[in-house]
Amino acid sequence: MLTLIAAVLIAQSPVAPADCAEAMTTPQINACAARDLAAETERMETYLAAARRKALADDQGASDNGPASSQRAYLDNGQTAWVAYRDIVCNGVYNRWSGGTIRTLMALSCSTRMTRERTQVIWRDFLTYADATPPILPEPVGPASPPAK
Q1: pLDDT per position as a tens digit, 48-94
Q2: What is the dihedral sign for C-alpha 88, 93, 96, 98?
Q3: Is 147 a member of any domain?
Q4: Residue 56 dihedral angles phi and psi, to the nearest 5°
Q5: What's the per-residue H, E or C state across 116-147?
Q6: Which of 59, 107, 55 is closest to 78 using CA atoms?
Q7: Distances (CA, A) of 80 to 43, 69, 74, 118, 133
Q8: CATH for 22
Q9: What pTM value is reported for the model?
Q10: By the 8 A CB rule, do 2 and 30 touch?
Q11: How many domains does the chain have?
C-alpha cells in the first residue's frame, strides 16, 4: 500500500513547491515527503547496485578458491526481506494514524527513515573493508538530495 501511495504522490509532484520549506498544505507536504522518499530510494539503489557488483566479483573470486560464497544471493535475499519488513512496519504506521490526514506523511516518513537506514547498512556491511582500504562509495550521511526535475 505504501509503495502505491508514494508512486501516486510522486506522479503528482507538481503539487510540491520548488522549496519544500514553503510547503503549507497537506498535498504539498505529502508531495515533498514523497520526493524525499524518492531521493532516498534512488540513493539506496545506487549503493545496492555497487554492492551487487562487489558481491558478484566476490562470488567469482570465491569460485576460484573453492565453493562460491553466494554473496549476491545473500544480498538480494536480504533486500527482499527488508522491503517486506519496511512495508509491514510503515503500513502499521499508516494504520496507526488512519484517523487523520497526517497518516500519509507519517507512513512516507517511516519509509524514508528506514530507507536511509538500509542504505547505511548496505554501505557498512557490503561496501567497506576491514582494513584501511577506502570504501567503494562514500558513507551515506544525511538526507539524500531530491531528484532533479
Answers
A1: 999 999 998 887 776 555 555 688 889 999 999 999 999 999 999 99
A2: negative
A3: no
A4: -65, -45
A5: HHHHHHHHHHHCCCCCCCCCCCCCCCCCCCCC
A6: 55
A7: 17, 19, 10, 12, 29
A8: 1.20.1270
A9: 0.84
A10: no
A11: 1
